[in-house]
């Protein structure tokens, strides 16, 4: 079994003076949700997600050798402009990964990052952002250790991304990614995401995700606080057991293409996530009235047309509308006619299942 120790960098031979890398990494949408964690970003239960294609972060990492004075040194740019408010999060990330990447203190970095989705869309950029940064750091490590295998490269990238933001470890490689130990999922790990090992049924090929931007405001409760509230939560143990069960069930569904079963698991997971928020202490609600309007419209449309369209939610008010590619036209028409009116400024994003991070430079 792979352990944390395996990710401490060794065999660092080369010492480049300076250079530049660029990666894009996508966002992902969980089908079975990660909600609750232990120390060191270890998830309380396993989760599985579809990797997205269009919603992504593109990050350029320039590095120049400096004296190792025991500190990290970096400038942070967002869309080319200095962004001081993002720095503490990056500083914390670098501190968390320091023991695995001791070479980082030998360089000054300029991190320049941008998202393909609107900045204030309420779409979490932490998954794509942390994944893109982790990919760049691994490109640097690969330069220092050219012997590194591709498998190790991606595994450690996911491992590092997880230390930045849990869900980020599912944004590295693959269309469907599992994170967290699960009895029936060979090679699954709490430390990094792994590609769903079986062949995905044709029903899920190019599966569509239209993201309805219901509320773009700051969330009143961050994911970090929400995860924390799963400690001493009255339903925590049941919930974690349910996630294991749902992961077993969805594993078969992704192979056999049973869309009815898929819908039941995915919608139940979304509502359970929000039920956990509503039943923690302090309790909170991230859905908005329009979130519920949209859910009801989707149920009505599905009942009337028998088209296998469903929804999921992340930790916010936005709704991800999921449907197979072969019903794309009917679903898009329905979304435009009946759902877009519930979106803030009529905004929505058409996305689909993707394949993971891409090396640009
Ligand atoms: C509801 O990965 O954002 O989207 O590890 O604290 O950064 P941190 O949390 P984060 O939590 C995501 C929670 C979720 C469900 C999911 O993506 O599985």
Radius of gyration: 20 Å
Shape: globular
Mean pLDDT: 96
Report the structural category. alpha+beta
Q: Determine and state the CATH class of the largest domain.
A: Alpha Beta
**Percentage of residues in DSSP E strands:** 15-25%
Number of helical stretches of at least 4 residues? 8
N-to-C SSE string, H for helix and E for strand? EEEEEEHEHHEEEHHHHEEHEE
Largest sheet: 8 strands, mixed
Count of β-strands: 14
Estimated helix fraction: 25-40%
Bound molecules: ligand DP6
User: What is the second-level CATH architecture of the largest domain?
Assistant: 2-Layer Sandwich
Point out poorly predicted stretches.
Answer: none
> Roughly how many Å apart are the termini?
33 Å
- What is the total number of structural domains? 2
CATH topological fold name of the largest domain: Ribosomal Protein S5, domain 2
What does this structure look like?
Strand 2 (37-38) and strand 3 (42-43) form a beta hairpin. The chain starts with 17 loop residues before the first strand and ends with a strand. The protein is an alpha+beta fold and 361 residues long. 34% of the residues lie in helices and 23% in strands. The strands form three sheets. Strands 1, 4, 5, 6, 7, 8, 9 and 14 form an eight-stranded mixed β-sheet that branches. A four-stranded antiparallel β-sheet has the order 11-12-10-13. Strands 2-3 form a two-stranded antiparallel sheet. Helix 5 packs antiparallel against helix 6 (259-278). The radius of gyration is 20 Å and the shape is globular. It has helices at 87-97, 126-144, 150-164, 223-228, 236-256, 259-278, 289-305, 328-339, and strands spanning 18-32, 37-38, 42-43, 47-65, 73-78, 81-82, 107-115, 176-179, 193-195, 208-212, 310-313, 319-323, 348-352, 358-359. Bound molecules: ligand DP6.
């Amino acid at each position: 079994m792979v352990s944390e120790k395996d990710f401490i960098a060794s065999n660092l031979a080369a010492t480049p003076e300076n250079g530049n890398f660029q990666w894009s990494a996508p966002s992902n949408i969980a089908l079975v949700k990660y909600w609750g964690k232990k120390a060191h970003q270890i998830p309380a239960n396993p989760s599985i997600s579809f990797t997205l294609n269009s919603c992504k972060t593109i990050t350029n990492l320039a590095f120049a050798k400096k004296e190792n004075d025991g500190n990290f040194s970096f400038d942070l740019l967002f869309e080319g402009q200095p962004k001081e408010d993002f720095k503490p999060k990056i500083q914390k990330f670098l501190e968390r990964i320091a023991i695995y990447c001791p070479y980082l203190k030998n360089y000054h970095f300029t991190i320049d990052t941008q998202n393909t989705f609107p900045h204030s869309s309420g779409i979490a950029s932490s998954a794509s952002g942390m994944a893109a940064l982790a990919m760049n750091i691994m490109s640097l490590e690969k330069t220092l250790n050219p012997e590194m295998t591709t498998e190790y490269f991606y595994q450690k990238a996911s491992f590092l991304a997880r230390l930045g933001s849990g869900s980020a470890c599912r944004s590295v490689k693959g269309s469907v990614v599992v994170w967290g130990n699960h009895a029936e999922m060979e090679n699954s790990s709490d430390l990094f995401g792994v590609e769903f090992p079986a062949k995905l049924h044709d029903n899920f090929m190019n599966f569509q995700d239209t993201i309805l931007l219901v509320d773009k405001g700051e969330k009143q409760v961050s994911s970090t606080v929400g995860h924390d509230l799963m400690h001493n939560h009255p339903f925590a143990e049941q919930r974690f057991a349910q996630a294991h069960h749902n992961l077993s069930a969805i594993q078969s569904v992704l192979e056999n293409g049973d869309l009815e079963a898929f819908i039941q698991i995915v919608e139940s997971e979304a509502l359970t996530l929000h039920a956990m928020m509503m039943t923690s202490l302090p309790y909170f609600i991230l859905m908005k009235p329009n979130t519920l309007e949209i859910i009801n419209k989707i149920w009505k449309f599905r009942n009337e047309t028998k088209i296998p369209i469903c929804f999921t939610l992340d930790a916010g008010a936005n709704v991800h509308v999921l449907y197979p590619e072969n019903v794309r036209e009917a679903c898009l028409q329905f979304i435009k006619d009946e759902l877009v009116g519930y979106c803030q400024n009529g905004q929505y994003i058409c996305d689909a299942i993707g394949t993971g991070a891409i090396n640009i430079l």
